[in-house]
Amino acid sequence: MRERLLSADTSLTDCELLEIFLYDCIDRKNTNPVAHNLIDSFIDLRGVFSATPRLLCMVAGIGPQTAEHIWLYGRLIGRIGGIAGAERPNLRNFERVRTFVTARFRNVQRERAEIYLLNATGELLCCKTMDGPDRRRTLFDSKTLGALLGETHPAGIIVAHNHPSGNSSPSAQDDAALHALGEMCLLHGVTLLDAIIWSEEDIYSYYCAGRLQEVLPH
């Protein structure tokens, strides 16, 4: 990877560049999965190097020292004049949400749930992903969500998860989990904009189905 960097750095992807960058702060460990986790959470390099240390530490594989290293590098970039990046995803309407969620869940065979934290104009600030059979319990943990909301100060959030079975219809468990999430959003003064269930056959939106307010606490 270092040889590729020195000989043809333009051929490296953002994730590969980040993987090499992490060599100096993560010893004796494959940094490729960590780089992917960072890009997955913050969308691009601009998002990674703009994140706070506390938010970075919420990404798998990132400890306090690595988070500080990334954050410091981001501050240096800012002093130099910023970092170029693509336009951030904007999820202010359902078609954009559908496209974004489909891109992230397509070909995912295991259970996954994600929270998308948005600013007032619908621009994506960051994502939080939970995998595995315990993801409903973990995703709605008040400590984790409280830390995310405290660091990003979003205007609203969208939550999405998949049904690997292929049926996107919400279950009673989905309704209960959404209600619990709604209670935490009320506590933190954040608007829960929609809840999405994705499957290979279809996509379900609580908002579009007219059930969001029915399920959320009043």
Describe the structure.
This protein is α+β, with helices and mostly antiparallel strands and 218 residues long. The chain has two domains: 2-80, 5' to 3' exonuclease, C-terminal subdomain (DNA polymerase, domain 1), CATH 1.10.150.20; 94-215, Cytidine Deaminase, domain 2. The chain is 47% helix and 15% strand. It is built from eleven helices and five strands, in the order αααααααββααβαββα. It has helices at 2-8, 14-21, 32-42, 45-50, 53-56, 64-80, 94-105, 135-139, 142-152, 172-188, 212-215, and strands at 112-118, 124-131, 156-162, 191-198, 203-205. Strands 2-1-3-4-5 form a five-stranded mixed β-sheet, with helices on both faces. β4 and β5 form a beta hairpin. α2 packs across α3. The chain is globular. It starts with a helix and ends with a helix.
CA distance, first residue to last residue: 54 Å
- What is the β-strand count? 5
Number of domains: 2
Beta strand %: 15-25%
- Biggest beta-sheet profile: 5 strands, mixed
CATH architecture of the largest domain: 3-Layer(aba) Sandwich
Instruction: Look up the CATH topology of the largest domain.
Output: Cytidine Deaminase, domain 2
The CATH homologous superfamily of the largest domain is termed Cytidine Deaminase, domain 2
CATH class of the largest domain: Alpha Beta
